[in-house]
Design goal:
It contains three helices and eight strands, in the order βαβββαβαβββ. The protein is of the alpha+beta class. It has one domain: 2,3-Dihydroxybiphenyl 1,2-Dioxygenase, domain 1. It has an eight-stranded mixed beta sheet with strand order 2-3-4-1-5-8-7-6. Strand 6 and strand 7 form a beta hairpin. The longest helix is centred in the N-terminal third of the chain and has 11 residues. Bound molecules: zinc ion.
């Protein structure tokens, strides 16, 4: 697979409203989009940092994987997302061929209209890894 850059860093938070003042008032970043991804039961807020972004993830239901993550590990870095140049489907096939466990067998639609897929942290040395493409 061909990775061009880190697309974003996903951070699990209990409340976007409570987290944003730190990112905006202390770090001086600007939130430019807040979006709910229904099928993921998550509300997302995006802040630009140069060519990359920070994605704040707030659970909208106790069933959300983000709610379970916070319950188990607390708030903090949840996943690392890479921008893929040569197609997420292709990258998934290549990763699977190399013995990586996939969470998503095929790309799906994520926040900001990106095609996304996750690799399982058991196969990626503990870092939940997202592959994205525009
Ligand atoms: Zn993400």
């Amino acid at each position: 697979m061909k990775i061009s850059h880190i697309e974003h860093l996903g951070i699990a938070v209990e409340s976007i409203e409570k987290a944003l003042p730190y990112y905006e008032n202390v770090l001086g970043l600007k939130c430019y989009n807040i979006e709910t991804v229904e099928d993921q039961k998550v509300k997302t807020a995006f802040l630009k940092v140069g060519d990359t972004k920070i994605e704040l993830l707030e659970p909208t239901s106790p069933e959300s994987t983000i709610a379970k993550f916070i319950e188990k590990r607390g708030e903090g870095i949840h996943h690392l997302a890479f921008a893929i140049e040569d197609g997420v489907a292709h990258a998934l096939a290549e990763a699977e061929e190399k013995g990586i466990r996939l969470i998503d067998k095929a790309p799906r639609l994520g926040a900001e209209g990106l095609h996304i897929a996750f690799l399982h942290p058991k196969s990626t040395i503990g870092v939940l890894t997202e592959l994205c493409e525009k």
